[in-house]
Write a structure and sequence with these properties.
Layout: E1 8-14, E2 17-22, E3 26-30, E4 39-45, E5 56-58, E6 61-65, E7 70-73, E8 78-81, H1 87-90, E9 100-104, E10 107-112, E11 124-129, E12 134-138, E13 150-157, E14 162-169
Antiparallel strand pairs: 1-2, 2-3, 3-4, 5-6, 6-7, 7-8, 9-10, 10-11, 11-12, 13-14
């Protein structure tokens, strides 16, 4: 709602409805009539998203980074996921909200700066396999060709593309 002091971090379409992600909440955006009648609903989830680049749409819902946990928003509520990954032990505090998420082939990928590496760029990728419910950390292996410096992901499908994953660097 206007003036609530909660900063918008993203907007996502889930099941044909637009949801507004804010730092401390998620709301549904009702659009009908003229633009002066558009409104945000009451809070659907009190678990917000302080990291705007972590938001990634998937067939299961929307993956995103909360304040102390990773979540999956299914259009009705937020579910904690990735229980075996502790924020305080892994994320560099000064870069925590710059983390970049992407959904690809049943995998949620999150590029982040490791708390213990001393780097100022994203040097790890959290890989969460939705089907197996398993988490792994890529430190520069198969996804990045041995060197880790990821700030964006993309995959393309078309006449000459078959959905391979591309990663852009963060420097």
């Amino acid at each position: 709602a206007p003036g609530d002091g909660d900063v918008i971090t993203g907007m996502v379409n889930v099941l044909g409805m637009t949801f507004v992600f804010k730092q401390n909440s998620i709301r549904n955006w009702h659009v009908s009539g003229t633009d002066d009648t558009w409104e945000l609903s009451s809070i659907i989830s009190k678990v917000g998203c302080p990291a705007p680049y972590s938001i990634a749409n998937s067939p299961e819902g929307v993956y995103y980074q909360g304040w102390e946990h990773m979540y999956l928003f299914n259009g009705q509520y937020s579910i904690p996921v990735i229980d075996d990954f502790l924020f305080d032990e892994n994320f560099l505090d000064s870069r925590r909200f710059d983390n970049v998420g992407y959904y690809w082939n049943n995998l949620y990928l999150l590029a982040y700066t490791d708390a213990n590496s001393g780097h100022s760029y994203h040097d790890r990728v959290l890989v969460f396999d939705w089907i197996r419910k398993q988490t792994s950390i890529d430190r520069g292996g198969p996804i990045t060709g041995g060197f880790m410096n990821v700030n964006c992901f993309a995959s393309f499908r078309g006449s000459d593309e078959w959905g391979q994953l591309y990663a852009g660097d963060s420097q």
